[in-house]
Amino acid sequence: MADTNSPAQSPLRLPLFRALWIATIVSNVGTWMHDAGAGWLMTSLSDAPIMVALVQAATTLPMFLFALPGGALADIVDRRRLLILAQLWALICAGLLALATFQGLTGPGLLLGLTFALATGAALSAPAFQAIVPELVPKSALPEAISLNSLGINISRAIGPALGGFIIAAAGPAAVFALNALSVLGVWIVLIAWKREAKHATLPAEHFTGALRAGARYVRHSPALRTVLIRSVGFFVFASALWAFVPIIARRELGLGAAEYGALLGSMGAGAIVGAVFLPHVRKVLSANGLTVAATLLFAAVSTALAFAHNFAQAASCMSLAGMAWITMLSSFNVAAQTAAPSWVKARALAINLLVFQGSMAAGSAGWGFAAGHLGIPNTLLIAASGMVLALGLALRWQIKGDMAGNIAPSSHWPSPIVAVDSPTDRGPVMITVEYLIDPTRKADFTRAMRTLRRIRHRDGAISWALYEDAAEPGRMVESFVLESWLEHLRQHERVTHADREDQEAVRGFHLGTEPPLVRHLIAP
Hints:
Blueprint lengths: L14 H31 L3 H28 L2 H24 L5 H24 L1 H4 L5 H30 L1 H21 L14 H13 L2 H31 L4 H26 L4 H20 L4 H29 L5 H30 L1 H14 L3 H4 L32 E8 L5 H17 L4 E6 L6 E8 L2 H10 L2 H11 L9 E6 L2
Antiparallel strand pairs: 1-3, 1-4, 2-3
């Protein structure tokens, strides 16, 4: 595990991160080659357009179905083992497809089924891949590491389809599927060699369904994560228009051939590379929020310019700038999401962030496609660019910061509860009451401060929360919150962070007297 206190250094100087980064690029190139090969093979197996469209559906649908379950698994099991199994699954599925295609046994159903299976493995492992990044690099290098991962995706997107097309022409789709299977081996070997530091848990792992609920509850009650999701929707819904129309602009508006279209996409990848190189330097000048505003304005300007591009050179210039803005936004939102979620729920939070990203892109593309049918592509791009600029109003209230949630390391400052009953672990529900004595004239200020505490209680496991005042003694305030079980309350002890401690101390500042607030633990019989 990386030393989070070590000085800033390039993540690529760290052998484990460097090996995994290179291996992941190779694997992603194989994935893009598979996508090209699967689509091409389906055109040979069926004349129905719906069958060709189903190849894309089989590739994207698993992300919506399995990303959140994958995030829950990554938070309750060993992430390294989960990733190793996912790579083994991908190797088996890709190998079976290659073997069947070499033998001439692949039909539409088998092609769709194995493509869906491959994408399912990728969806289940995607949150874990994102969640392990803080384990591979120091905290100071996290933004650059995330930028490099985004860069790797753009590199593979630029190389994969073009290389896949060349191999299909030379050796057929079966060769592409075989190479995709081989591309998985690098990641698998790096993960096998990784000596991940074992984490010794004092409590049993969460149940799967409970982990899903806990992840959704955390995101719902985390202002930092809600900020990331709101800003993501405000950008990606409008940015999806450019992605949706690039193929049509290239073929119909500019009359480009397949090779020029590939070069057009490659120019965006080149822009992303340049952006990744300069991004660490720009971060020293602009705040995280200012960086997202600047990148959004650049992307909006590029979308507008692309609407009026008349030749390949103009379009390629636009795409290069779009690549710079795109990787800036991806990196900024991913860094914000990473720093907003503690380790125990990180993969689930990142999975929800991934779902919002994918959903915004899918819904936006469909909506802009419908609008273009009535308004034309140039007008639709102008509307999307205008909407992107207007959505920057969100940056005033929901600001992206370099450290979204403060110090989210566990503080372990809650004292262990005194227990006199037998084996309370599996009993519940559990009610916790905290009794405060405050100056009645400060009741309004105290109540406002308790809103933050209410959010923390809900976020870390409480299923209900309330605040009461003693009718017979003004100033005696009783906070109560309920958890599903005693075990969940013990987990709540482990989840409290240093940032939470600061908020709790602010509330304790209202308490009068030398004794601390009286805490009671009540378990249902």
